[in-house]
Amino acid sequence: MDDAPVHRRFVDAPEGFRWTETDVHPYKTDDAGHAAVCRQVLFEEGLPVQGRYFEIGPDGHSSFEKHRHVHAVFILRGRGQAVVGERVLTLAPFDVVRVPPDTWHQFIAAPDQPLGFLCVVERERDRPVYPSPEERIALRRIPALAAVARFTSPESSV
């Protein structure tokens, strides 16, 4: 293991928040029901966690999914909403959101601005689980979620 210090300097670039010495990657390489999302891995060297920065373009959204691991999310820029379980949270800069394990979740940017956040998760973690067609039908019956969540997924557009 390399014990050299890591320093990534913040850059507020026209295309979004960026850090030096860090590549910008697509959010996911599959079609997992997301729109206008990119990610950067900011730290993981020598740690049991990984710190990532996600930026969702205006009116974009992350996948609607759940995992066995916990997410610690720190909003840095923009406004939007988060679906966490059966709740819809309104997001603003410097808000902190904990997504418990095995909890459906999704982050949605406001229509007129990007939503950027740091997300800290276990470095070794499970893959996302997407709702089945039956689960999507049940989730749509929850009024708060039906009004906000984007239930697109790789399996179907139910």
Describe the structure.
With 158 residues, this protein is mostly beta strands. Helices cover 9% and strands 42% of the residues. The protein is built from 2 helices and 11 strands. The strands form 3 sheets. It has a 6-stranded antiparallel sheet, with no helix packed on it. A hairpin with a 5-residue loop joins strand 4 (35-43) and strand 5. The chain is globular and about 50 Å long. The chain starts with 9 loop residues before the first strand and ends in a 10-residue tail after the last helix. The model has no long low-confidence stretch (mean pLDDT 89).
Strand order of the largest sheet: 3-4-5-11-6-9
Rg measurement, Å: 16 Å
- Main sheet summary: 6 strands, antiparallel
Kindly state the percentage of residues in helix.
under 10%
Shape: globular
What string gives the helices and strands in order?
EEEEEEEEEEEHH
How many DSSP-defined strands?
11
First CA to last CA: what distance?
47 Å
Taking pLDDT < 50 over at least 5 consecutive residues as the criterion, the unreliable ranges are: none
* Tally of helical segments: 2
Q: Which structural class matches the secondary elements?
A: mainly beta
The overall pLDDT, averaged over residues, is: 89
Beta fraction of the residues?
35-45%
